[in-house]
């Protein structure tokens, strides 16, 4: 097949190869003469894409019509001139004379405007130091390119912008040339170029084939760009991500080093953060990317996200995943400094909510902020309030210092009672265990980590000894492979079991789409199945005959639990289990209730589970009480429900959340246009366009 190229410019083809038909130039793919009046199939060339043609014969070729160039021919060498003329005969003669096919010429050349298919992105492809091969891949016929390669042209030769011939051919959408070069197989880092092709032309199969044939997926190009950072760096926040995420997935599955940096030290995560590519950030983090890795200038991904301004969703995502939010770069600048420079109110709000403002005194007087305060009285008022509110996370922790023990309940309230508190070695569970002990109850704490349990037991015993003017109740620890075993031991040890507090539990942050079956099962097993087994054993072994009280600690998941869907589902299950058991076991004198802490009960272990305190700081801004909850506040609710004061309460869930469940959701939904409104007008249009005009039910 031959192509017709539209335009009225000189495309650099040899006189012998052209025929003029008005302002239409006819070119034979092989650079041969066209017979006068020969019919030529037309392929749409606008935008430089010859992909619309389904011809598979690689030798067919059209010189692109829309690649005008401004040149200074004077400085170009004879090889380049021959290429421009598609003069293979001359090229052969030059090769015989051993003329260097790789010498660079240094004149200015503006060969084309590239139209990248996504968005409105377009740019000029300018070349200043190029050789014949670079001109050829953009402008010459396949035959000419083959002549050139036979004559010794280097298929990997970089132009002065370090672009390879393959890169240039891809940039101007000359897919047949791209295929030729890739088939030659000599291109350095062909894989990276394949990534480029996937991104630009959705050449997914090509990338998969290369991966399967053992391509080095970590090989950087001459500038040090890796395929992964290349892929991430070429995405657009507005793209629909489908193909782009596919390439990231292929690369990660193929063993790409997720933290490999470019020469500036930037990782793919930093690029994704700067480009606001939230789904990519999630994928990279799930693949183990180091969230706090720094580039050569001392920036981490959070710095990059802040520098991207209007990038709140990326900042939030990083914060939630434990990014350090107040580290300085090598110039000593923190993300807050950037926010102050920009004068960005939303970034400032986010950073303040995350306590990422260690030198807050700077804030009020920063020049941009002063301007904003002058113009925006509401902002001024808000900022003043923020500055004066005792809000630091750590300050609250210090207040919660558990070296002292107290309780609003009367001492001896639970004397000689026996309780099991699962997860009683840390955080909320430890506070519950301690308060129960303080009120005279014998307590067994149980969890997975024996060292934690032993340290907690030692610590609690020494504190009780200081604060309890009565014989110490018994405190046992159990390390258990399973909850069931744990209960059996406890029942044997004490001979009775009055209270069971199912507090052990937890989860990890993850978009639902990334949760593996194993991860899902781990969270369901820990929180739902574990709680069920504990309840069942406590009931069958003791409470069925003797009565008792069970408290299940759940979570504030009643509006859904985005990014923690597994635990949301498990806790909703426990909420319902609580009601079922409250009814089924009522005739044994067993009460079953739940306590739902808001997502803001700070403890070091809880924060450590998410890598840092930032997630809690973020959530605090969404709690009406505008502060963290304390572990004592959960313990107090539990003690109340265990006490006779709650004798008539069963099957109930008590929220201890500062009003959080009534207020905001944890996740901001980005702006989008994916929700299509149903109107009769749209309905009719849709029917018409589908050719379905009759009144019929679609349900
Ligand atoms: C949003 C802010 C939170 C506010 C509300 C809630 C607050 C709290 O609940 S604070 C309490 C925090 N404390 C904990 O969460 C307790 C500790 N947590 C855990 O131990 C785990 O998260 C667990 C619940 C999953 C327990 O898992 P375990 O049975 O020990 O399982 P493994 O650790 O072996 O992991 C099994 C499987 O799960 C997947 N997975 C585990 N962690 C992660 C993670 N961080 N990211 C992604 N996926 C994870 C993974 O598939 C694991 O398998 P492998 O890959 O083979 O290890
Ligand atoms: N803090 C908060 O804001 C909120 C907490 N919650 C829930 O409150 C409970 C207590 O959390 P908190 O004290 O904050 O956090 P912690 O991380 O300190 O407590 C979790 C406890 O559960 C134990 N645990 C976890 N998995 C298992 C298991 N498979 N078997 C036995 N024990 C296990 C852990 O001990 P070990 O590692 O030794 O096994 C740890 O003592 C959890 O269920 C939590 O999800 C709910 C909503 C909000």
Automatic annotation (TrEMBL):
Keywords: ANK repeat, Coiled coil, Fatty acid biosynthesis, Fatty acid metabolism, Lipid biosynthesis, Lipid metabolism, NADP, Oxidoreductase, Peroxisome, Phosphoprotein. Pathway: Lipid metabolism. It is found in: Peroxisome. It catalyses: (2E)-decenoyl-CoA + NADPH + H(+) = decanoyl-CoA + NADP(+); a (2E)-enoyl-CoA + NADPH + H(+) = a 2,3-saturated acyl-CoA + NADP(+); (2E)-octenoyl-CoA + NADPH + H(+) = octanoyl-CoA + NADP(+); (2E)-dodecenoyl-CoA + NADPH + H(+) = dodecanoyl-CoA + NADP(+). GO terms for molecular function: trans-2-enoyl-CoA reductase (NADPH) activity. Interacts with PEX5, probably required to target it into peroxisomes. This is Peroxisomal trans-2-enoyl-CoA reductase.
